[in-house]
């Protein structure tokens, strides 16, 4: 088993990233046997698709590395690195640009969402983004890719690119990866709008819980979270159509290990005035230790850089045979 996943180092690690992806990364790392390997990386090469000041970009990479380690990624057991230190990603992306079809990229909903109405004015990188993501996965022969629901389409494209490359060049070079998407927390929604996903790019910080938020901030954000005036139902089926309520119950369930049905049974008939303080307490209990580890790790840039350099060396070594195979399959002489 080869596990691989990435995260863009733009802004804070938030509860959506954590429950949708990172918590699964940690679970898979902890369940690893001797034949398995985990690769987790900061997608800094993806982050250039949106403009950022260079100093901010460097800080973001270190912030995200610290957040991942604080959340449980152990650089001694998993290969933790940043993409820019492993040029094979950019190289394979270019090779795969010969295979990926414009029609496939035109169907990517995340591009449509991110580009909005300004299609002509966004960077080419934003459009080609999913091809770099395919390169990330295929370079390492990843079998399992733990992600949130929003990355499912990119993983399907990755498989299409792999199949077409293998067929066109008559090789069995690329392994087809399977997305691993959590059932209950595949899509954590904004605290301000139950129809939008929780996201780093939402201009309102009240829309998300950041893993670095202090206890008072978490409590205030939950107090201000949008809800409806109805009490909690007896079972989760009664949450149908109540998007904000469903989201908050789902978060409480994820924090406590209860099922959404058990959460409803516990609070049945009570309003959100009673539920919200319990939710805030559960979040604080879970996140406070992560935050304190994060703050300590963030003190030492040199130590974080050393971890990423070491991880990048291991990643480059693991990626080299596949990259070589791709050049050779295409008849490119080096
Ligand atoms: P990114 O940085 O947007 O998000 C990182 C991970 O968090 C998940 N996620 C969510 N899950 C549930 N609810 C939410 N509200 C939520 N918001 C984010 C994402 O699904 C993702 O798993 N393109 C990727 C990064 C990437 C990648 C890769 C992932 C680059 N190369 C190769 C896997 C394999 C991205 O922008 O994720």
Automatic annotation (TrEMBL):
A motif ('HIGH' region) lies at residues 9-17. Its main location: cytoplasm. GO terms for biological process: tryptophanyl-tRNA aminoacylation. A motif ('KMSKS' region) lies at residues 197-201. GO terms for cellular component: cytosol. InterPro entries: aa-tRNA-synth_I_CS (IPR001412), aa-tRNA-synth_Ic (IPR002305), Rossmann-like_a/b/a_fold (IPR014729), Trp-tRNA-ligase (IPR002306), Trp-tRNA-ligase_bac-type (IPR024109), Trp-tRNA_synthetase (IPR050203). Keywords: Aminoacyl-tRNA synthetase, ATP-binding, Cytoplasm, Ligase, Nucleotide-binding, Protein biosynthesis. L-tryptophan binds at residue 136. It is found in: Cytoplasm. It comes from the Bacteria. ATP binds at residues 8-10, 16-17, 148-150, 188, 197-201. Its EC number is 6.1.1.2. Homodimer. PANTHER family: TRYPTOPHAN--TRNA LIGASE, MITOCHONDRIAL. HAMAP family: Trp_tRNA_synth_B (MF_00140_B). Belongs to the class-I aminoacyl-tRNA synthetase family. This is Tryptophan--tRNA ligase. The gene is trpS.
């Amino acid at each position: 088993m080869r596990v691989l996943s990435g995260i863009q180092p733009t802004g804070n690690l938030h509860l959506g990233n954590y429950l949708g992806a990172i918590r699964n990364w940690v679970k898979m790392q902890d369940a690893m046997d001797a034949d398995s390997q985990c690769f987790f990386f900061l997608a800094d090469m993806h982050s250039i698709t949106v403009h950022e000041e260079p100093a901010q970009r460097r800080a973001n990479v270190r912030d995200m590395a610290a957040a991942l380690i604080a959340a449980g990624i152990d650089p001694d057991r998993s290969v933790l690195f940043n993409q820019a230190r492993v040029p094979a990603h950019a190289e394979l992306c270019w090779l795969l640009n010969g295979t990926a079809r414009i029609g496939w990229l035109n169907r990517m909903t995340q591009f449509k969402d991110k580009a909005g109405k300004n299609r002509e004015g966004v960077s080419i990188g934003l459009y080609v983004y999913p091809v770099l993501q395919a390169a990330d996965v295929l370079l390492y022969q990843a079998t399992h890719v733990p992600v949130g629901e929003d990355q499912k389409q990119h993983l399907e494209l990755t498989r299409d690119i792999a199949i077409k490359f293998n067929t066109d060049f008559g090789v069995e070079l690329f392994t087809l990866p399977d997305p691993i998407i959590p059932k209950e927390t595949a899509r954590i929604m904004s605290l301000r709008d139950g129809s939008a996903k929780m996201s780093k790019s939402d201009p309102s910080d009240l829309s998300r819980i950041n893993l670095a938020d202090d206890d008072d901030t978490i409590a205030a954000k939950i107090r201000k979270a949008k809800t409806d005036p109805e009490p909690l139902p007896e079972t989760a089926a009664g949450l149908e159509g109540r998007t904000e309520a469903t989201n908050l119950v789902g978060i409480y369930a994820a924090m406590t290990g209860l099922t959404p049905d058990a959460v409803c049974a516990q609070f049945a008939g009570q309003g959100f005035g009673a539920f919200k303080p319990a939710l805030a307490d559960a979040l604080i209990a879970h996140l406070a230790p992560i935050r304190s580890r994060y703050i300590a790790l963030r003190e030492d840039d040199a130590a974080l850089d050393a971890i990423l350099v070491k991880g990048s060396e291991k990643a480059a070594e693991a990626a080299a045979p596949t990259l070589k195979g791709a050049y050779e399959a295409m008849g490119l002489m080096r």
